[in-house]
């Protein structure tokens, strides 16, 4: 697995401290020169919140404090620059500043102001601002150079004498005054005169600190006062004297205590907002606020639930989110009137029993905590909405109260779901919305589902469901059913009863057919069954419900194949009246399957991409006249029906990329509404002379998106030959203009990559890039690497994302791949407005800035590419700021871009960015925001970037340290959903542009890199994206990923790049050209995920390798561990995935055992070793990780060697009898070879790979090269040899072992990957509960129920059979028979006796494990003696059979004394 080196600084060392005072009439105190704490800050608008970066700073070498150059402004906006150390105070700096004043002005008293905020020591302020904005110490000096500080802050030296009068303020109404962000230092005089008329006063974002007492006393009608974003350390003392105030907002300040505020004197206070401050406690008198209805104390520093809040008996609304509270007190039950409680983003692990006293609670939002039980909350009598995603729930019992309508428990570890009725007297089934997506359920109980009769919306996505109960049809009110990303093999036939169902999303499952009853869904308007295994669509039922017969123009009806009865379509079913959006991408539909779709006259969107369609029916579009979007990508089309295209008067989007089209029909030009056309990666040829019959892009004047990239045979030329006969005049459109694109005035994206442009330069008509147009006309190979790009326009039909590909021409062969922008435009922008100006600037200037930073690297300080990338991001963000906010400077070294972007909505916007820099065989990835990169290594996806989201714990801490806050909806400052980005300067530096940087060493194992914005990653997992792109050319892979995202629901601006990094090592194409043949699915294996991988190998015959696997302790896990069904799904999925990748053939499964065959021995070894390693990283259910057999185990070197299910494996090779199973139609094997393979597996312990001597001989010959080659060595695949060598196998000889039922003993050996060699001694290894998944959740949840008792005993006895083998010496045959007899004897015992056996067997088994050395002795034990001893103990009523067995085995007096319960 590759190592990732992230350039991130640890937690910030500097946290903003308590503020001082900075009012207009306040003189700087002398104490500033010796101040120990950080001083006051104040804001003149915006949020004033700042962020701290996370990259290690270089230590300053000198002991002398560094000097920083600062630009200090005068009142007339002129400035001079001073150079000061970080320990210089304002008091020391003031005399120097006075010397710079004009003659006469030096007599006036001046004060140094920090515009935006103020602190004691100016240079120290600058240093701290550098850190919060993401700069290292050296970065700030190099990038800002002391003179560009206005990017972060601004110093102004002003006179304190009265100057010109304040700007005249005019008010139409003195009842409601809004003075937010006016830079006021005092209350305007005019407000003093009308104080008795003010009802609402908003002073947020002003630098004033104190509000005069006389003003408060005069405000006799004041009800609302807002004082947020003012940098206050303390609450103004005058507020306590307001007798009429009911609503007070003190949020987003720096208040550390309310002790001296005496807010309890404001008897009428009903609403108090103090979120985003530095509060750790509330004053003892806080409970006197008896009338308080709403209290928000979120985003503070509370570690315990604040005392006093529980005594606020009238409280209705309480928000304590994003603190560090770990426990809710019992006293919370005193809040009898509480209606809404928000505790998002804390560490609460349990809801106390007293929570049941909250009889009026209607809404509970407890997302992102560690709660393991919601029972007490679900049963509240008035609860309506309960949000509990991202917690530690594992067993959800739906004890639903009578009013609960919305329940969200997604993203938990739930493995069991049951229903318990609520209180008597009212139906408990009021639930209308249920979200159990992204949990670990494998079974949905039919009774439970049938009782939720009022459900309107249910989400079952990302689970392991194989079926949905037929009781689904009882949910007659259901409107939305989402069950995507499961393993569903079918949908229930009862779905046709759902007459109110509007949306059905079942994409990415294993559906092989849709129920015919689906035709009866009268309200279904959106159906998504993309990425399934569908091969046909049922004809409408013979007897449809009575509905109005759908009329067709000219009395025509769709034509169906001759073998279908016309009577079957005499009545048009309800679905034809309702269905508007149909997504059928990535299935196996052929031409024949399309006929039933032709009656869906209401369709607006039809997605048939990535099927097996070759020739569509000629009249397919005849009745589909309302179509707006059609997706036919990735089929095998050589033509498509165009006769009815003129009827498609609404068609705006047509995707035909990835087919076999050579020409496009002329009729396409008659679709005047067409704005988006993708015909990339076809076999297009173009002849302008044939313009009367072939389509030309100039016929569609409204095109905004045109992609021709990937048509390597397409040549665009303007030269034309004069035909021998006279043609129609081309006076309107010249032939030269047909070769150009200038007439497409609305074009936003033009893709011409790999297209040959043969137009002469004098008539070249290829448009240039500009603010709102992107033209790609380069080859798809850069520095030997093939790459592809695919994108879409956003809903606003403008560019929102911009790509950058740059090849450096030096000898190092380095290249940059980047993208900048947003998937969605700012919500404030009008729909037709472009939002890409920020992205455009970043795209045009990145390379220039990056080169300058590379050239400026200082090798003396070991600076490298990560430093250059970090500084490039920061410098770009700084330059972009100057461009946006400066009206005098012109943008340097840019063209075609407006130097002043004055639109306030653009100024408050931002852009994510990601840059991949490949230098030789080194790759560096830097990103901010949610554009991410994933690399495929041997078919496995690795994330090589970081998503910057506010919910990330590290980002949350950084935001809080920078005085920022996060809303319960997960938005920074309640505005944006990313925590780092370019732009968003009003949130600077809470949201900064410091990138996370990953350094990655490329090898020949790396295949390709996928770079994409959130419109891919929000809908497609990393591994799925890699699977989709496998064995596909990068250009086609990028287009395919984009089309998949669209079919899964993406509707924003999508951008995807795929880079073939394997080309760096092989000098050839990254992947083979896509296979256009229809794939024949393996018989018996139905799995959409496997279908994306390489095809299953043909059944091995002749000399083959046979592998058996089994799960250790599976019996008792199945009997008592609720996580086992989900664990088995994960186990099976992993084994089957690597069978495809390693070239194995699944013969059959029996219970939890696999029987597999391989063409070669080393392919089998490769598979076994790989599976053992990959099992460690499977996301097992918590119940598995908590049980004895699944806990994480570490070896003496602290290396993880076991975690989750433990799998035993056995390998043997030979020539078995091969014949096809008549039931499964799959190859089966029999004979001595198979029997021996099975027995070899039976001798393996959990996590072991036991191999026969024939297998070891092949390993020694081809891997270890210690023995001569065998007759089969030449057939061993090089890929397997290389893979095994990378896993570094270690062979441990076991010796000669007698296998049950096999006469001749077998010489066995264990094979371990070197990283798992600690398993050899695992019986002596202490379990360490350090699993990250466990550390996060398990300590706050109850333990799993006890495992089955006899199941445990059977497994312990079974394990005892292989103890000797595991420790290096095989057990004797009498020993084996004795244990078998013991097992049979115990199975006949009554239940109560079995329970006693279990307890002692477990205890003594632990003692056996501790005495492994004694087990090495080979004392011959006569089984009859042992049984006699057991019978003797039973006759006298003793319960020591296992102790007698132990005594007879070892004959050790000391051991006998320890097991003193022998009679």
TrEMBL record:
An annotated Gene Ontology molecular function: metal ion binding
Q: Which Pfam family would be a valid example here?
A: RA_3
Provide this UniProt record's keywords sorted from A to Z. Leucine-rich repeat, Metal-binding, Repeat
Q: Where is the Guanylate cyclase domain?
A: 1105-1241
A GO BP term here is:
cyclic nucleotide biosynthetic process
Q: Where is this region: Disordered?
A: 1330-1349
What InterPro entries would the database entry show?
A/G_cyclase, Leu-rich_rpt, Leu-rich_rpt_typical-subtyp, LRR_dom_sf, LRR_R13L4/SHOC2-like, Nucleotide_cyclase, PPM-type-like_dom_sf, PPM-type_phosphatase-like_dom
Which Gene3D superfamilies does the UniProt entry name for this protein?
Nucleotide cyclase, PPM-type phosphatase domain, Ribonuclease Inhibitor
Q: Which first-to-last residue range defines the signal peptide?
A: none
The UniProt entry, under SMART domains, shows: CYCc (SM00044), LRR_BAC (SM00364), LRR_SD22 (SM00365), LRR_TYP (SM00369), PP2Cc (SM00332)
| Protein origin, superkingdom | Eukaryota
The UniProt record lists the PPM-type phosphatase domain at 786-1061
Q: What is this protein called?
A: Adenylate cyclase
């Amino acid at each position: 697995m590759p190592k990732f080196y992230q350039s991130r600084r640890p937690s910030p060392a500097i946290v903003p401290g308590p503020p001082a005072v900075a009012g207009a009439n306040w003189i700087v105190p002398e104490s500033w020169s010796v101040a120990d704490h950080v001083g006051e800050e104040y804001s003149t608008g915006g949020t004033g919140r700042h962020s701290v970066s996370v990259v290690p700073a270089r230590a300053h070498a000198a002991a002398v404090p560094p000097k920083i150059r600062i630009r200090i402004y005068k009142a007339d906006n002129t400035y001079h620059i001073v150079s000061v150390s970080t320990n210089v105070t304002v008091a020391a700096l003031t005399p120097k500043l006075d010397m710079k004043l004009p003659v006469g002005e030096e007599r006036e008293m001046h004060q140094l102001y920090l515009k935006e905020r103020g602190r004691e020591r100016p240079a120290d302020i600058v240093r701290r601002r550098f850190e919060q904005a993401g700069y290292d110490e050296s970065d700030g000096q190099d990038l800002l150079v002391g003179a560009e500080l206005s990017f972060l802050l601004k110093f102004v030296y002003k006179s304190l004498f009265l100057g010109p009068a304040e700007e005249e303020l005019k008010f139409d109404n003195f009842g409601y005054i809004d003075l937010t962000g006016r830079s006021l230092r005092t209350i305007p005089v005019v407000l003093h005169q009308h104080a008795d008329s003010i009802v609402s006063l908003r002073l947020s974002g002003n630098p004033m600190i104190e509000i005069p007492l006389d003003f408060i006393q005069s405000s006799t009608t004041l009800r609302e006062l807002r004082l947020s974003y003012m940098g206050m350390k303390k609450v103004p003392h005058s507020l306590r004297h307001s007798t009429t105030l009911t609503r007070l907002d003190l949020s987003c300040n720096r208040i550390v205590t309310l002790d001296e505020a005496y807010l309890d004197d404001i008897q009428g206070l009903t609403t108090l907002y103090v979120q985003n401050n530095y509060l750790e406690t509330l004053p003892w008198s806080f409970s006197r606020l008896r009338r308080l209805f709403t209290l928000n104390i979120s985003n503070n520093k509370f570690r315990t639930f604040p005392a006093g809040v529980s005594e606020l008996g009238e409280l209705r609304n309480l928000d304590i989110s994003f603190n560090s509270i770990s426990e809710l007190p019992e006293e919370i039950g005193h809040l009898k009137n509480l209606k809404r409680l928000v505790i998002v983003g804390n560490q609460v692990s349990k809801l106390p029993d007293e929570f049941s006293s909250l009889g009026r609670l209607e809404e509970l939002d407890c997302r992102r905590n560690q709660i393991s039980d919601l029972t007490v909350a679900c049963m509240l009598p008035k609860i309506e909405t309960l949000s509990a995603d991202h917690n530690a729930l594992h067993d959800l019992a739906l004890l639903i109260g009578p009013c609960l309508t919305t329940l969200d428990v997604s993203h938990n570890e739930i493995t069991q779901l049951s229903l318990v009725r609520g209180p008597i007297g009212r139906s408990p089934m009021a639930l209308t919305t249920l979200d159990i997506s992204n949990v670990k359920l494998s079974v949905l109980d039919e009774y439970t589902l049938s009782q939720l009769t009022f459900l309107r919306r249910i989400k079952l996505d990302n689970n392991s469901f194989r079926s949905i109960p037929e009781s689904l049809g009882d949910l007659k009110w259901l409107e939305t059913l989402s069950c995507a990303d499961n393993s569903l093999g079918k949908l229930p036939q009862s779905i046709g009863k759902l007459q109110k169902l509007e949306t059905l999303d079942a994409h990415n499952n294993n559906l092989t057919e849709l129920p015919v009853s689906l035709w009866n869904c009268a309200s279904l308007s959106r159906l998504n069954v993309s990425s399934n295994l569908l091969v046909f669509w049922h004809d409408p039922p013979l007897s449809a419900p009575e509905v109005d017969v759908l009329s067709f123009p000219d009395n025509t009806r769709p034509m169906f194949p001759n073998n279908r009865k016309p009577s079957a379509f005499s009545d048009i079913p309800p679905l034809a009246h309702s269905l508007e959006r149909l997504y059928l991408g990535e299935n196996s539909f052929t031409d024949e399957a399309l006929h039933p779709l032709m009656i869906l006259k209401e369709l607006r969107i039809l997605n048939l991409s990535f099927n097996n369609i070759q020739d569509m029916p000629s009249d397919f579009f005849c009745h589909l006249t309302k179509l707006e979007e059609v997706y036919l990508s990735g089929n095998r089309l050589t033509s498509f029906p165009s006769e009815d295209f003129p009827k498609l008067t609404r068609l705006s989007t047509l995707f035909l990329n990835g087919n076999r089209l050579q020409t496009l029909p002329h009729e396409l030009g008659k679709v005047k509404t067409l704005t988006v056309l993708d015909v990339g990666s076809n076999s297009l040829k173009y002849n302008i002379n044939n313009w009367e019959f072939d389509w030309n892009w100039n016929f569609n004047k409204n095109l905004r998106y045109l992609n021709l990239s990937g048509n390597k045979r397409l040549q665009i030329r303007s030269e034309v030959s004069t035909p021998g006969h006279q043609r129609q005049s081309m006076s309107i459109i010249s032939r030269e203009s047909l070769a150009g694109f200038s007439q497409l005035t609305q074009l936003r994206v033009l893709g011409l990559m790999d297209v040959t442009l043969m137009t002469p330069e004098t008539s070249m008509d290829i448009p240039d890039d500009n603010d709102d147009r992107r033209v790609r006309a380069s080859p798809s190979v850069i520095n030997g690497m093939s790459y592809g790009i695919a994108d879409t326009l956003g809903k606003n039909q403008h560019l929102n994302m911009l790509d950058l590909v740059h090849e450096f021409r030096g000898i190092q062969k380095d290249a940059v791949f980047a993208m900048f922008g947003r998937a969605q435009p700012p919500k404030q922008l009008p729909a037709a407005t472009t939002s890409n100006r920020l992205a455009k600037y970043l795209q045009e200037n990145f390379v220039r800035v990056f080169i300058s930073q590379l050239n400026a690297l200082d090798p003396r300080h070991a600076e490298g590419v990560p430093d250059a990338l970090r500084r490039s991001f920061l410098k770009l963000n700084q330059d972009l700021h100057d461009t946006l906010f400066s009206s005098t400077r012109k943008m340097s070294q840019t063209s075609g871009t407006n130097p002043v972007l004055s639109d306030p909505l653009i100024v408050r916007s931002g852009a994510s960015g990601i840059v991949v820099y490949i230098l030789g065989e080194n790759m560096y990835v830097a990103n901010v925001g949610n554009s991410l990169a994933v690399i495929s290594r041997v078919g496995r996806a690795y994330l090589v970037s970081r998503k910057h989201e506010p919910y990330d714990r590290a980002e949350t801490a950084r935001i809080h340290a920078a005085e920022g806050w996060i809303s319960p909806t997960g938005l920074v400052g309640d505005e944006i959903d990313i925590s780092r980005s370019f732009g968003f300067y009003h949130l600077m530096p809470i949201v900064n542009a410091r990138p996370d940087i990953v350094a990655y060493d490329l090898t020949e194992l790396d295949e390709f890199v996928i770079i994409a914005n959130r419109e891919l990653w929000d809908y497609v997992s990393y591994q799925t994206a890699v699977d989709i792109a496998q064995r596909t050319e990068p250009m086609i892979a990028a287009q395919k990923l984009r089309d998949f995202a669209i079919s899964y629901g993406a509707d924003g601006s999508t951008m995807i790049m795929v880079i073939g990094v394997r080309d760096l090592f092989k000098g050839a194409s990254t992947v083979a050209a896509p296979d256009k043949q229809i794939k024949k699915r393996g018989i018996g294996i139905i799995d959409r995920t496997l279908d994306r991988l390489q095809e299953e190998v043909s059944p091995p015959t002749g000399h083959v390798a046979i592998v058996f696997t089994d799960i250790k302790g599976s019996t008792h896990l199945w009997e008592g561990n609720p996580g086992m069904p989900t664990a088995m799904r994960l186990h099976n999925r992993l084994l089957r995935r690597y069978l495809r990748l390693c070239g194995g053939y699944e013969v059959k499964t029996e219970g939890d055992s696999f029987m597999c065959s391989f063409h070669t021995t080393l392919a089998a070894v490769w598979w076994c070793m790989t599976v053992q390693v990959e099992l460690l990283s499977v996301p097992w259910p918590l119940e598995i990780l908590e049980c004895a057999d699944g806990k994480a185990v570490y070896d003496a070197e602290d290396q993880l060697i076991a975690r989750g299910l433990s799998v035993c494996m056995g390998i043997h090779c030979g020539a078995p009898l091969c014949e096809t199973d008549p039931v499964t139609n799959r190859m089966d094997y029999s004979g001595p070879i198979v029997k021996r393979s099975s027995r070899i597996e039976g001798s393996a312990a959990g996590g072991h790979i036991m191999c026969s001597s024939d297998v070891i001989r092949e390993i020694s010959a081809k891997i270890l090269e210690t023995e001569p080659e065998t007759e089969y060595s030449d057939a061993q695949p090089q890929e397997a040899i290389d893979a095994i060598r990378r896993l570094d196998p270690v062979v441990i000889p076991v010796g000669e072992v007698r296998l049950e039922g096999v006469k001749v003993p077998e010489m066995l050996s264990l094979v371990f990957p070197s990283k798992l060699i600690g398993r050899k001694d695992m019986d002596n290894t202490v379990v360490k509960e350090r699993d990250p998944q466990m550390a996060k959740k398990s300590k706050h949840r109850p333990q799993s129920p006890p495992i089955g008792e006899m199941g445990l005993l059977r497994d312990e006895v079974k394990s005892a059979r292989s103890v000797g083998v595991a420790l290096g010496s095989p057990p004797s045959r009498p020993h084996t028979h004795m244990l078998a007899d013991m097992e049979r004897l115990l199975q006949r015992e009554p239940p109560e006796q079995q329970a006693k056996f279990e307890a002692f067997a477990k205890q003594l088994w632990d003692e056996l494990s501790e005495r492994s050395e004694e087990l090495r002795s080979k004392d011959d034990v006569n089984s009859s003696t042992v049984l006699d001893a057991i019978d003797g103990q039973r006759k006298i009523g003793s319960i020591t059979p296992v102790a007698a067995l132990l005594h007879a085995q070892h004959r050790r007096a000391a051991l006998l004394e320890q097991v003193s319960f022998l009679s």
